[in-house]
Specification:
It contains four helices and 15 strands. The protein is mainly β. The protein has one domain: monomeric porin ompg (Porin, Beta Barrel), CATH 2.40.160.40. It has a 14-stranded antiparallel beta barrel with strand order 1-2-3-4-5-6-7-8-10-11-12-13-14-15. A hairpin with a 3-residue loop joins strand 6 and strand 7. The radius of gyration is 20 Å and the shape is globular.
């Protein structure tokens, strides 16, 4: 029964579009490159992160994802480069994706404005033969299994940050060459759709050892309702982040990140599902490990990394 339910949720429409095309994480505020290529190299040191997410645990076919990223500055901090590798599995579909991110940073006021581009490709697979369908003549599911289809993708982003404020806009997947997985009489010309991300936040120092960081993320996909992530994280003694968030129509989120050393950090997030899925699931879990390195990483000892 649970396999049938997840199939209905993920496949849902006659167009065959799956409910979640972009890898979704709750600790995005500590993984800026995942949302926005313009984030690459916005610190004077290099940063690497690895993250695993298990969404809707105990739910057959529920999304799981892994992402590894690294970024850093070049050319006297005027350029930034980053590499992202991710694996995203949802129901009968799976994507293994790699992308290169390049950003150019311009001084603007008290901060920097960055413009970034993303170029990469994914290996897309869909085991459609595992799906139970009632309309045996549906061309979406009669096209056969898709195994490792190579799909180039391109994205764009803008990002502004100063010492106490940041704001960004991005389209991680602006265009994809996905003709091979679009059926001939489809009402859409592309399988993958653009997702528009707007995020902003700031830091308020509430004392020598307390900093408060509220932030918001707006996610827009033309075929779905607008979704908001409202978050507030508190940094204690420059080492421990505690946070809470609310994702509209989806979940309440709790987060913790501990800076084991100025270079090494460990994070965890738990999503308590607010939809009917919570009848079958114990929520979502996310674990992250980060490591910062380079000649200027000692700056973090004097000034903590806010974003």
């Amino acid at each position: 029964m649970k396999h049938l339910i997840i199939t209905l949720i993920l496949l849902g429409s006659s167009a065959g579009l799956f409910a979640q095309q972009e890898l979704m994480v709750s600790q995005y505020m500590f993984n800026g490159l995942l949302l926005n290529p313009a984030y690459a190299g916005t610190h004077s040191y290099w940063s690497a992160t690895a993250l695993h997410r298990s969404q809707w645990t105990n739910f057959d076919g529920a999304p799981t994802g892994q992402v590894v990223g690294i970024d850093g500055p070049l050319a006297n901090n005027r350029l930034g480069v980053g590499l992202l590798i991710s694996n995203d599995r949802i129901g009968v579909t799976e994507q293994l994706e790699a992308s290169v991110n390049i950003a150019y940073h311009l001084p603007l006021g008290k901060g920097d404005l960055s413009f970034g581009i993303r170029a990469g490709a994914s290996s897309y697979s869909a085991t459609l033969s595992d799906v139970t369908v009632w309309d045996e003549d549906d061309e979406v599911y009669n096209q056969g299994d898709i195994q490792g289809q190579f799909i180039p993708k391109f994205g764009f982003g803008m990002y502004y940050h100063s010492e106490r404020f940041f704001a960004g806009f991005s389209i991680p997947m602006l265009y994809s060459l996905d003709d091979a997985i679009v059926i001939d009489n489809s009402v859409t010309s592309n399988y993958f759709t653009q997702h528009y991300y707007f995020n902003a936040g700031g830091v308020i120092e509430a004392g020598t050892n307390v900093a408060i960081k509220p932030s918001v993320l707006v996610k827009v996909e033309p075929a779905a309702p607008v979704q908001l992530d409202l978050n507030c994280n508190v940094l204690l003694y420059r080492r421990l982040w505690l946070g809470a968030g609310y994702r509209t129509g989806d979940a309440l989120i709790g987060m913790i990140e501990y800076n084991i050393t100025p270079q090494l950090r460990l994070g965890y997030a738990y999503d308590h599902t607010l939809t009917d899925i919570n009848t079958y699931s114990n929520g979502s879990h996310e674990v992250m490990l980060g490591f910062d390195f380079g000649q200027d990483v000692t700056i973090k000892k004097r000034s903590p990394r806010y974003f």
